[in-house]
User: Which sequence fits this backbone?
């Protein structure tokens, strides 16, 4: 939640429209939602506003570096999908015409450089929670290997699948789900649900990588199907078909990767994010003084 109120201030002898902004988030850890909160706070501060972040939990050993060193006037959500969820959940507010603004999370594209070599590796990065459906990546990769083994050539011999992400031994689901995934990988012979937004697809595209994602939720708003990656039905068969296209045509991955990078730079950079967020906040200010 973001709340904004007026604060007096002057810059270079000219009165500056500076706001006092409070951002509330329950757990300031290292997930995609937390990255959004940190970027929002930093960008608002860069635009001259007085920003305070309130949280019930902040572990200095497990947080983003930037975090170490009443009634909201504005409601922002991270995707159109989340906006629809907001309308269904807060029906009273929706009936009164209160609709949240959409502010897509961003990535710092400058930290990602063009790859110097190409080796086929499918990467799945998520928290180890069942709702993230990591089983899909493992089953799809296993199916891909079974299909590719019947085709000529050896394009898949060096292909790998890497499953990584947020893991906390204190969380029972993390521990249990990791063991379930290990058992599935063994059973499939590869050992050796809706996302409201998802920052990983943006980071992958910023790193010149095409993305394979489910054709629902946030990825529909970030991945351009057959341009920056593939949007598929959430089944191992459909995912393996998309993976096979990249196996059979390595140049396709390079072309899509370049298009993906350009897409993120244009629409999801931190500058675009900061400018849009600042405009939302200033609109609140102007509405209050009118």
Assistant:
């Amino acid at each position: 939640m973001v709340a904004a109120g007026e604060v007096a201030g002057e810059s270079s002898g000219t009165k500056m429209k500076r706001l006092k902004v409070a951002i509330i988030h329950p757990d300031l850890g290292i997930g995609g939602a937390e990255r959004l909160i940190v970027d929002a706070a930093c960008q608002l501060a860069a635009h001259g506003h007085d920003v305070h972040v309130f949280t019930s939990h902040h572990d200095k050993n497990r947080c983003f570096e930037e975090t170490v060193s009443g009634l909201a006037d504005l409601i922002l959500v991270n995707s159109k999908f989340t906006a629809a969820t907001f309308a269904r959940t807060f029906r009273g507010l929706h009936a009164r015409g209160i609709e949240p603004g959409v502010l897509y999370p961003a990535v710092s594209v400058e930290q990602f450089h063009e790859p110097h070599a190409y080796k086929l590796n499918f990467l799945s990065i998520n928290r180890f929670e069942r709702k993230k459906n990591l089983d899909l990546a493992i089953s799809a990769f296993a199916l891909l290997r079974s299909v590719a083994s019947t085709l000529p050539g050896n394009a898949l011999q060096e292909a790998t699948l890497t499953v990584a992400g947020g893991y906390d031994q204190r969380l029972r689901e993390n521990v249990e789900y990791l063991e379930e995934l290990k058992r599935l990988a063994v059973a499939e012979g590869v050992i050796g649900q809706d996302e409201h937004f998802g920052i990983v697809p943006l980071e992958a595209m910023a790193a010149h990588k095409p993305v394979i994602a489910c054709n629902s939720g946030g990825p529909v708003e970030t991945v351009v199907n057959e341009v920056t990656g593939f949007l598929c039905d959430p089944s191992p068969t459909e995912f393996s078909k998309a993976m096979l296209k990249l196996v059979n045509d390595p140049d396709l991955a390079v072309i899509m990767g370049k298009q993906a990078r350009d897409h993120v730079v244009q629409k999801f950079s931190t500058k675009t994010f900061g400018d849009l967020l600042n405009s939302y906040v200033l609109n609140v200010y102007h509405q209050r003084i009118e």
In short: The longest helix spans residues 270-289. The two ends are 24 Å apart (CA to CA).
